[in-house]
Amino acid sequence: MQLKLTTTRKEMTKNIYKLIAELKLLIGYLGEKNQFNWWDSNFLGTSSGVFLIHPYPRTTLLAQYHGVSEAALLAHDESVGIGHNYHLFRLPVSIERSIASAVREMTLANSLGNTLSSKENALSRLTELAIKANAEDGPVNIGNFDESCLEQLIRTSAGCYLSAFEQGKRSFPYMRGSHD
Fold first, then answer.
1. Interatomic CA distance for residues 17 and 32, integer angstroms
2. What does the DSSP 8-state code read for residue 8?
3. Exposure winner among 12, 90, 131, 150, fewest CB in 10 A?
4. What is the secondary structure of 58-71 as a DSSP string?
5. Radius of gyration of the chain (CA)
6. Helix 150-167 crosses helix 9-31 at what angle (to 10 degrees)?
7. Which of 149, 151, 171 is nearest to 160 (CA)?
8. How much is the average pLDDT of 11-25?
9. How much is the pTM?
10. What's 148's DSSP letter?
């Protein structure tokens, strides 16, 4: 029996969804009012988890994810606009569903708990996941949306956020969609 050394397309796609889910949680956490104050929420704070565990005992992280994603989505849409553009918090619906499924499989008990426990830990993890990029205040076009190179686009987006956090800017990276 020969071991399969290549990753199947389905596994690669699932890994990209996990990456995006982690980045949404990281950026969401860092953008909250207790960290860099880009949006007025605290869904990923300790007190929120304690509050949400009672109504959502099995899906607390998913509830936090949806809350922080919505707060970040509103800030991004205000900066980037709504229409033919995509950003980390507004991707095609089929991708968003797959990301939510990836979050359902995550738990704060794994490495996320430690990562989302402090601004420093979150920035450290973001540094590991990001492709170096420069940040500007406001919307930043990082290229055209293309699902075949989604991982690179998302990692570049992560680099823009990281640079913005480090420089005290508010950067909203986005991808141009098709204009069919």
1. 22
2. P
3. 12
4. S-HHHHHHHHHHHH
5. 16
6. 20
7. 171
8. 90
9. 0.88
10. G
Nearest Cα to 96, choosing from 116, 69, 115?
A: 69
Distance CA 95, CA 118 (A): 28
Given a cut of 80, whether residue 139 has pLDDT beyond it is: yes
| Domain segments of the chain as ranges | 12-176
Q: Alpha-carbon distance 49 to 40, whole Å?
A: 17
Select from 56, 80, 88, 92 the least CA-distant residue to 136: 80
Instruction: State pLDDT tens for residues 84-107.
Output: 899 999 999 999 999 999 998 886
Per-residue tokens: 155: 């990692």
CA 102 to chain centre: 12
- Report the amino acid identity of residue 2: Q
pLDDT at 1 over 50: no
Q: Give the ranges where 32-149 is alpha helix by DSSP (H).
A: 46-52, 60-80, 93-105, 111-115, 119-129
